Amino acid sequence: MKKKIVALGLAISLLVPTVVQAATSYETEIEKGVNFRSAPSTNAYIFRMLSKGEDIHVIEKYNQYWLKIKVKDGTEGFISADPQYTDYKGSSPGSGQGTTNTKADRIINFAKSLQGRVTYDFGTRNPSKMIFDCSSFTEYVFANQGIDLKWGTKYQQNAGSAVSKSNLKKGDLVFFNTTGGSGINHVGIYIGNGQFIHNTPSKNGVAINSLNTGYWNTHYVKARRVL
Q1: Is the pTM of this model over 0.70?
Q2: Which residues are marked as active site?
């Protein structure tokens, strides 16, 4: 009886196809040393320098300036699309040219992915250790989608164009005064449904809070649209 069961099991296993995950093909070669960055921006964190002769996989041509790539240790990031750096022959930009709404969603999703990974320290901008203050955090998040912001609320509060609280859209920067005096000293990103995401000392990291009730409602000052 046992022999029949074993034989039956073997027969069934032979009929079930084996699922094999396709391996990544590293089809593109680095022809000149190039910085491998965390985001499509010259201000983005540099993972390392890719050396001549190294093979990479091009995920997409993000836009005319950047290639989104994957290296052999699995890390994904961006390098210059200038043809002097690789033998890549593609030409059409990929999803990096998406609509404003799509880009806003990507910014928000990236910010959310940093929850539990980022710590807060006033006056700090350290992507390698994931330590930011509120405005270096927004700078880092927006740089991931190729949007350059200056570090500091004094600069970001004048970026883009003014937008009223009643007309907020996903991806808008929202500003606060938490000291009781004049001026602005905190910034976050509006994510929709009356909420925003920010790097805050009260949590020592990334948090999502209501913009329309409680503390942040009473300390709200204004918003700017940079997308």
Answers
A1: no
A2: 134, 186, 198
